Amino acid sequence: MAKLPIQFRLNGSDRATFVDPASNLLDTLRRGLGDFGPKYGCGQGTCGVCTVLVDGEPQLACLTLAVSCEGRQIETTSGMADGPNLHPLQDAFMDHFAAQCGFCTPGMLTAARALLAKNPQPSREEVVEAISGNICRCTGYEPIIAAILAAANAPGARRA
Ligand code: FES
Ligand code: FES
Q1: DSSP state, residue 61
Q2: Is the domain 4-79 a CATH 3.10.20.30 member?
Q3: Average pLDDT of 18-40?
Q4: For the CA atoms of the chain, what is the radius of gyration?
Q5: Of all atoms in ligand 2, which is nearest to the CA of residue 101?
Q6: 95-136, pLDDT tens digit by residue?
Q7: Domain map (residue ranges) of the chain
Q8: Which of 28, 31, 36, 60 most suits a substitution to test ligand 1, by most atoms within 8 Å of the C-beta?
Q9: Which ligand is located closest to the Cα atom of residue 99?
Q10: Site to substitute for ligand 1 among 62, 64, 110, 135, most atoms within 8 A of C-beta
């Protein structure tokens, strides 16, 4: 099947590639563009490890057609740090030991980033709701929730 050209902004940079019409965004990011921030877990929309931001909204990249992202702004954890300075959420995840194996971490960070961008002072319940689509097999969730609540009070936590 003929490949289609596609262009979008990825973590602030213009990127262009060719994709199969049925390719999902996760494959395009990982295999096509070498952004291994978003992970492949279930591939069917149930684990959340592939979560990226599309025009600021958390979206499951495994269920998103790449061609639907033409002209959109895609953000992944690969672009969260500002040079050597980690994003406050990344710092808080380290401070609170919110990553063990780390497989869920990119999706968790992305879901949290979207939450704090819209709701800079979320309640615990709102944090739980925001990460409800992200499965963690290691932490029991409490360190992750604590990290997100702590990051909400850190300077720059709403940085896109
Ligand atoms: S890999 Fe996308 S939700 Fe699991
Ligand atoms: S830290 Fe291992 S799945 Fe969350």
Answers
A1: G
A2: yes
A3: 97
A4: 15
A5: 2
A6: 999 999 999 999 999 999 999 999 999 999 999 999 999 999
A7: 4-79, 88-152
A8: 60
A9: 2
A10: 62
CB atoms within 10 A of CB 22: 10
CA–centroid distance, residue 135 to ligand 1 (Å): 10
- Give residue-wise pLDDT tens across range 81-91: 999 999 999 99
The verdict on the CB of residue 115 being under 6 Å from ligand 2 is no
CA–centroid distance, residue 138 to ligand 2 (Å) = 5
In CATH, what number does 88-152 get? Answer: 1.10.150.120
Task: Classify the phi-psi angles of 55: left when phi > 0, otherwise alpha if psi is within -120 to 50, otherwise beta.
Answer: left
pLDDT at residue 40 in the model: 98
Q: Please state, in angstroms and rounded to a whole number, the distance separating the CA atoms of residues 125 and 98.
A: 18
Which of 85, 75, 64, 58 has the alpha carbon at shortest distance from 15?
Answer: 75
